[in-house]
Amino acid sequence: MVTGAAPEMRAGPYDALKVDVWSVGATVWELAETVPPFSIPASPSSQTTFLPPNSKHLGSQWPPLSHPEHYSKGFHEFLRLCGADAAARPYAEELLNTPFIRNACGRAVIRQLLTQCRSMEEAMVARDNAVSLNS
């Protein structure tokens, strides 16, 4: 089960649009790390449980990335902005002007990457099926 929210949601009134920006940051962090931020293994099966920050300010500091060198300066700045304290956190339209968003690749590149992923997945399924038949 995944629970948790922007830190300010536990502190009283909040700006829902800025909460959404925090959630985008959490999603981007999760895409980079393959587990939600502030998560721990819930069981040996590697499922994760989202542990909401205890402090209303903890959300301003994402957990460290396992390989920060793999990501651009723009990526790091985007995450920093999304996780800033609510008063300093930009609205979504402001994030559209960040280098991370402005310099994003186009649809053709994304389509090509998705096609490559699909081919890799099909190859893995075929390999797993072959192993199952030989077992």
Automatic annotation (TrEMBL):
GO cellular component: a single term: cytoplasm
Record-level Gene Ontology MF annotations: ATP binding; protein serine/threonine kinase activity
InterPro entries given in the database record: Kinase-like_dom_sf (IPR011009), Prot_kinase_dom (IPR000719), STE20/SPS1-PAK (IPR050629)
Domain Protein kinase: 1-101
Swiss-Prot/TrEMBL keywords: ATP-binding, Nucleotide-binding
Highest rank taxon of the organism: Eukaryota
Gene3D superfamilies per record: Transferase(Phosphotransferase) domain 1
PANTHER family recorded: STERILE20-LIKE KINASE, ISOFORM B, STERILE20-LIKE KINASE, ISOFORM B-RELATED
Name of the protein in question: Protein kinase domain-containing protein
Lineage: Eukaryota, Fungi, Dikarya, Basidiomycota, Agaricomycotina
